[in-house]
Amino acid sequence: RGEGAVLGHLAGIWSTGGQRAEAEALFDQAIRVDRACGNRRDEASALINLAILHNETGRRESSERASLHAIEIAREIENPRIEGLAATNLANLYKDTGRIEQAKAMCERALALLRKAGDRRAEGFAMGSLANIYSSTGRIEQARALLVSALKTLKVVGNPLFIGIVLGNLGEIEGQLGRIRQSEKMLRQSID
Q1: Which bin fits 28, alpha (ψ -120 to 50), beta or left (φ > 0)?
Q2: What is the torsion angle, in degrees rounded to the nearest 10, for the CA atoms of residue 97, residue 146, residue 119 and residue 98?
Q3: 154-187 CB burial, b ≥16 within 10 A, e <16
Q4: What angle, 0 to 180 degrees and rounded to 10, lies between the N-to-C axes of helices 2-16 and 20-36?
Q5: Dist. CA 13–CA 99, nearest whole Å
Q6: What is the DSSP letter of 38?
Q7: 40-56 vs 80-96: helix axis angle to the nearest 10?
């Protein structure tokens, strides 16, 4: 049971470090090990990470399949956190491929699931994703409001990486709204 988790963690490190082929092989191996020992939660987690890797390398169809499989497993084991994480990634994929209404619906579902699970960190990330969807459809004020909420949430849970991302996105939106000083302030904070 621990072997799959170790393989998944190592794959994550390799993926972050740019060793994508090696990471993919390890994610695949972790999925097989987790499936063989009946560890459905870790299998779903590895599928989510594999879906992210496939999306980042332009393999959208396989990314979507892996995300949908992770959602299916999460529902089977009644794990709203895992389902919410997979749904957030799937919403981002839908946005990236121009399926905006599907992206919005999936992201709203992800937010509800993550709130149910009490995962504030992932909730903040999902709010940022939904804000990006709103921004891409010209709903700038709604996007801004969501980013402000996401920022508050992420500051409470202390996630510097996501805080920086949200600040950068908020700075961009402030600029679109003509609030140049506020935009500059947010953008500077995002890199501090």
Answers
A1: alpha
A2: -10
A3: beeeebeebbebbbbbbbbbbeeeeeeeebeebb
A4: 160
A5: 31
A6: T
A7: 10
Least Cα distance to 132 among 161, 160, 94, 158 occurs for: 94
Tell if the pTM clears 0.85, that is, is over it.
Answer: yes
55 token code pair? 């999306």
- For the beta carbon of residue 88, count every other beta carbon within 10 angstroms: 27
What SS3 state is found at 78?
A: coil
Question: What pLDDT is recorded for position 162?
Answer: 86
Report the pLDDT value the prediction gives residue 13, as an integer from 0 to 100.
81
d(CA 17, CA 11): 10
Tokens standing for residue 179:
């609030």
Tokens 């950068």, residue?
168
Confidence bin at 1 (pLDDT 50/70/90): low
Quote the tokens at residue 85.
Answer: 């994480």
* Amino acid at the residue 99: R
